[in-house]
Amino acid sequence: MEKELFEGLVESIRQMNAIEKGEMEPARVHRHHVPNVKSLREASGLRQDEFAEVVGVSASLVQSWEQDRRIPSGSSLKILLMLERNPAIINELRAV
Looking at the structure, do residues 24 and 42 belong to the same domain, yes or no? Predict the structure, then answer.
């Protein structure tokens, strides 16, 4: 098993060198757009703790998102994307 792991590592290094030399294209990685949480929150006129309550997470998580220490995911990411597209839904979320 260790030999297989080592061979995989060596192959990865070969691919990296080929990509750097332009001999190979890097694999495409699908990345989600991540909204700017601080901008969304500020546009809503809410403090971090208020915004956290509306989104359904802790204030410390909102702070981590704003400081780029954590990346939103799952249902939180979907809610943030919805807020980015339609900021007016903040009022609907507040009512829930």
Answer: no
Host H or E run for residue 41: helix 37-44
Per the CB < 8 A criterion, the answer to whether 79 and 30 are in contact is no
Specify whether the CB–CB gap between 32 and 77 falls below 8 A. Answer: yes
Query: What's the predicted TM-score (pTM) here?
Result: 0.68
pLDDT band at 96 (very low <50, low <70, confident <90, very high): confident
The pLDDT score that the predictor gives to residue 1 is 59
Domain of residue 14 covers 1-30
Name residues whose C-beta falls within 8 Å of residue 77's C-beta, 6 or more positions apart in sequence.
Answer: 32, 34
One domain for residues 55 and 89 = yes
Domain match, 61 and 23 both: no
